[in-house]
Write a structure and sequence with these properties.
The structure is a homodimer. Chain A is mainly α. Among the domains of chain A are: 16-45; 47-121, Winged helix-like DNA-binding domain superfamily/Winged helix DNA-binding domain (Arc Repressor Mutant, subunit A, Orthogonal Bundle). Helices cover 63% and strands 6% of the residues of chain A. Chain A has a two-stranded antiparallel sheet with strand order 1-2. In chain A, strand 1 (92-96) and strand 2 (104-108) form a beta hairpin. The radius of gyration of chain A is 19 Å and the shape is globular. The structure holds a DNA duplex.
Chain lengths: 163, 163
DNA sequence: TATTGTTATACTCTATAACTATA
DNA sequence: TATAGTTATAGAGTATAACAATA
């Protein structure tokens, strides 16, 4: 088993009234979503940190390790380790930077690209199962509120590294 | 810095239409919420895993390590380590089980109880800031939809350990 | 024989600090 | 002098497996 973050270990959702109860429900939701993300990632032979790297490469193309570190929000040292791991698994390769001989460009391999596509397909299928029978009149306001809360929480937590 | 789980490293939220985009927004929300949880926990000198242990003890009272392991969803070996850490920090203590000489009961110390209360107070204050100016007509449906999604995701991910 | 908790070992993710090669 | 990436070291969380003491 991987991950202590057990929704059942969080307060259970009564018939919500107070702000605190609402926040507890939000926490339980977040933990459950994380489990879901994690399960998909693990099913494709990735860890969360490595999946973040691969996803970043998928979105932005070949990237130096420094750029990866800044985008992902970890130290350069950790990027070395993550790229090492992904290289051993055959998902990425380092190539010399064309103009800066100190740096590498990290590329997705064909295998890496495949895994990215599979993950995306997994989640697309999952999103169908999740949302397809929820009425649009319900989804719109839900997503809108969620975005508001996302923005507020991000502000409250403090600025995150930008991609 | 602690945590690669950077919302900015996830796809940005356009004006939602597709299910996939909705799921991406849900992911971004979950990651942001996790950051928020984590920040509060770290501010009180705890890690996430240890906070889960403390919260469990707070809710259910003195507990054997086996019970903790099952409730939290980690192996007994890890509970040993977590309780060791919490004991070193003075948040919990082991006491002999009254009727089973193999087992310990893990208790919150006064310090542990204090930290639990502080965390709860932190999040209660946070929930005010988050929700207080969101109209009830909006909150009700939001929480309701969120609960539906939580249940579905939990089912899709597979059963979790029960507390 | 089964359960509780431990020691032993290993892997991943995280961090700082010091170092090399290059800019 | 500053930057890109590495090695060195350390701590936390996770896992399996083997073992002691007790049920």
């Amino acid at each position: 088993m991987n991950g202590i973050h057990n929704p059942a270990a969080l307060p259970s959702p009564p018939d919500c009234t107070t702000f605190t109860e609402a926040l507890e429900q939000v926490f339980a939701f977040a933990v459950t979503v994380e489990h879901y993300m994690q399960a998909g990632i693990a099913a494709r032979g990735l860890t969360r940190a490595r999946a973040t790297v691969i996803w970043q490469l998928h979105r932005h193309g070949p990237t130096t390790q420094q750029q990866l570190a800044r985008a992902i929000g970890v130290t350069a040292r950790n990027v070395t380790a993550l790229v090492d791991g992904l290289q051993d698994s055959g998902f990425v390769r380092r190539e010399p930077h064309p103009s800066d001989r100190r740096a590498f460009l990290v590329h997705l391999t064909d295998t890496g690209r495949q895994v990215t596509k599979q993950l995306a397909a997994d989640y697309e299928a999952g999103s169908q199962d999740l949302f397809s029978d929820i009425p649009v009149e319900q989804m719109g306001p839900f997503l809108s509120t969620m975005q508001t809360l996302t923005a507020r929480l991000a502000t409250a937590t403090g600025p995150q590294t930008q991609s």
